[in-house]
Structure formats: structure tokens, C-alpha cells
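Ticket closed. Logging final result for MBL fold metallo-hydrolase.
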Amino acid sequence: MRITFLGHAGFAVETASSVVVMDPWLSERGAFDSAWMQLPRNHHLAPRVRALLETPGRERFLYVSHEHKDHFDPEFLATLQRRDFTVVIPRFLRSELQDVFAKYGCKRVIACEDGREVPIKGGYIKLFVSEQGTNRDSAVMVRGEGQCFLNLNDCKLHDRLARIAEEEGPVDVFTAQFSGAIWHPTCYEYPEETYAAISLKKRESKFEAVSRALETLRPRAYLASAGPACFLDPTLFHLNLEKVNIFPNATQLFRFLDQRLPNAALKKLESMPGDVLDAGTLDYVSLDGERLTEDRFESYLRAYAADMAHLFRERRRNMLRAEVDEIHARLRVELQRKLDHLDLHARVGMPLYVELTELPHRLLRVDFQARRVDEVPSIHESTRYAMKVSAVDLVRVLDRKLTWEDFLLSFRLRLSRSPDVYEPILHGFLGVEIEDLRAFCEGVRSTESQRERTVVDAGGRRFTVQRFCPHQGADLSEGWVEEGRYLVCPRHRWRFDLEDGGRCPTNGSTLCAEPATQPSIPSESEPDVPLHPVQEPLSL
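Final structure:
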């Protein structure tokens, strides 16, 4: 088995009889309205990937993990002329991927439910599908020629990895996201010190998730992928050069892993786009000519930005006041339609203010309790959520050129909240499409309806807690305990204070923790966590 790194989260896995191309993101326009660009550049690989998918003689498969445009690249896929290959995608409640590929004209489309195997000669492709709340994603395993490659990409399956390892057997090469990919804290108006502290905590949490996955799976090699994109829009370029943010590189991850797993028999690989790895020997068959190193990072980015400057000149334009007024009116209608579809509106106790930067004294105030949107001159509550955005950027959402989630991931907005507490229903209101909001609410109710409990040992005491995380339903029996009192969710690393009834200090969610009838008195050799004992995460 040979594995070619295509950049970001893209791979081509080849055996003598089959080729599986995974998440090829190769468009020179990047993703999320060109806010994200591939790092390092990988556009030169487009002809090679086209040849892999268009050349007969082997079974050919295209796998797309989910809808995010740094994985699903319609612009590149439209350039493929010969489409006699099979598309393998996850089956989500939202049918966007199925609808797109039903019209694509390929040989066949296999929409896989969780755990489905697609046979190939001498092995199989297997998908693991995850859909909770606003998150839809999948992971893929390819087994063939005596080797196994598991690509977790962005999929948060950490609470299932132990079962996957038990059911599927040894994994030779493993890859998983290690960098952040979210608008918090990137788009929030925090003081510099607060921003850095939140970023560092999130970075360590992501690194710790990779560490625990490696401990569970014990692969022979880890391939760093789904790392940071770069931001070449002049309004976003500063994100690349911040001393601390949620976009670390592979070198920083490997330093963490060296401390966290000092005795692991693990080969850590940072590939460049175009590098080809032999999964059996773990040696590179070939290396791409250009290597991006830390010492030339800034000069590389500035040259890259100069080459792509035309993209950002093309998208910026001055708007007439009448155009802005029209966008303001359309936005008000859009927010009201969203509110009408949000069945759980009464749970949101604070208003949302939306400001077009061109109209700073005509804010839209979303009152979730009264279920109405009003125009107001200013913010007049201390408890509120606020969003600022340019009409030039937002109109692309109203014109359906971007989804709401794509827009949020473009980072072309500013957010603030008081108090600084995550509100899941409001978060869903912003990020979910109108037609999906009722399903989103049903998903919240379904997660909350799970009442199964489990037992946790912590600090010499035993607690019973709800087994499934109230956030998105992760199995907390696969979690761990920190500081002798905090149960940590394996999927998003929320911490629940067992000595405070299982409450999460950052958002008020609770596991309804109660002392168990029989106290736990572990011996000196027993860990605090009964299922997956591992050491505490180390600071960078």
C-alpha cells in the first residue's frame, strides 16, 4: 500500500488493484470564499490526482468525508472529465452531498451509514459516520495488501476508538486533525491575554486528543494532516503570525508528543504535498521537491499572498447605500425565518445583536423569548451576544453562495458575548441552515433524553453520572479524570466538576453527578480513571 499526501486532509491510497482518493482540496481559490488557502501549496498536484481518478485499469474511488469546503472541493471535481469511478460518501440526515453527486455523472455513488464496508480487491473501505448537532463528519479506513490506514480527518470519534481498535485490528498508519478549525476564539473580541490563554488551552486539548488516540490505537506511524490552513486575505493575514492561536503546526505537535509519549514506538511523519509513503516499510518512496520549514515560514506566506492577491481584489467592492439597505432588509427576513424554525428558542435567555458595519446605528436585535427581530439604534443589555459583519461578505450567504457555517468559518466577522459562556442553541441558530433547524432541535432533545448512567472513580471517591455528554452525546465512559475531580469529555474535552454535581464551569451544563453508595479506595497502583488510565496532559 502506498499513501500519497495531497495536502491538508487529502490522501491517495493505492494498492495494486485499487486507488482511493480522499478529500482532494486542490482549487486555487481555496475554501470558504477564499478565506482559507492550502498550506503548503498543493495546486500543482491537480493533474496527478486527475490522472489517478481518470486512468482505467484499477478500481477507482473518490471519498469525501463531509461538506466543509477544505474537504469537499466542487471546483476541482468539476475539472474531472472521465468520471467512471465510484464516489463513497457518508449518509447524513442533510442530503447535500448525496444531492450533488447524484447529478455529478460518475459510475455510482455509495452513501454509507456508520460502519458500512465497501469491498475492494484484497480488502475493504470502511466508513465511520458521526452526526451530532451542527457537526457532520466521517472517518475512513482502508485495509489492503496486509496494511491498514485509518484517516480520522476532522471527525470527533475519540470516544469510539477503543471499540474500533478492538473490532478492526491493528492500524499501521493513522492520521487525525491536530489544529483548530473554528471561529472561537479567532473571531471574538477578547483582550490579547485572554485570547492567548483560550487559544493555548484549545491547542493543548487538541494535542491531548491526538495523544490519547495514539495510545488507544498504537499505530506504527502517525501522519500529520488536517493541520492549519493559511489566511492570505489582507484582512486575515495577521492570523498566520500570531504567537499563540489555535493553528499550530506539526513541529509544535511533535514536540508535545515527544514529552507526552516519550516511550511510544511511533514514527511521526510530516509530509509535504506529493510525498509518497510505503505503508509497509514506512519509508518514503518519493519526496516532493519543496519543503516548508519554520525558518522560512513568513517569507513563504508573503510570497504566496502576493501570488493570490488578485482573488481578494476581485471580491472587494464598494456598495451603494441602497444596496446596503436592501441587504439589511433581507437579513432581517432571514433571521426571522430562522427564529420561526427554532423550536428551542425559549431556552436562549439573551438577545442576539447583528450589526452591518456599514450601518452601525441600525442593529438587528433577535429576541429569542418573544421570537421576533427588531431594528434598534444600539445595544442596551449587559447580557447579550453580538455579531458584526460587512454587507459585502454577508450578502453571499443571503444569495446562497455560502452556507451560514461556511460564512462563520471564513472568519470575516467579529463576535462578542457577555457573559462569556457557550450557548449551544444560539450557536446552532447562527450556524445551521433554515431547513435544518428543526432537525437540529430534535437532535438536542434526543441527546438530552439519554438517561443511562455510568460510574466514575475520582480522587478516591466514586460518582454516578449521566453516561452521555449533554453537548453532543459523546460516551463519557471513554473519558478521563483530571485534577482528581474533573471528568473530561473525550470528544470536545469539556470538563465536568464531579464535586459540584457534575457541572461544567464554562457553560453550566451538568452530568447530574451523585456520590455512589460504595466509595472507591484505589490501591497505590490503581489509576483514578477506571477505563483508560493515562497521564495528565503536559503544558507546551
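Residues 520-540 have pLDDT under 50 and may be disordered. No further action required.
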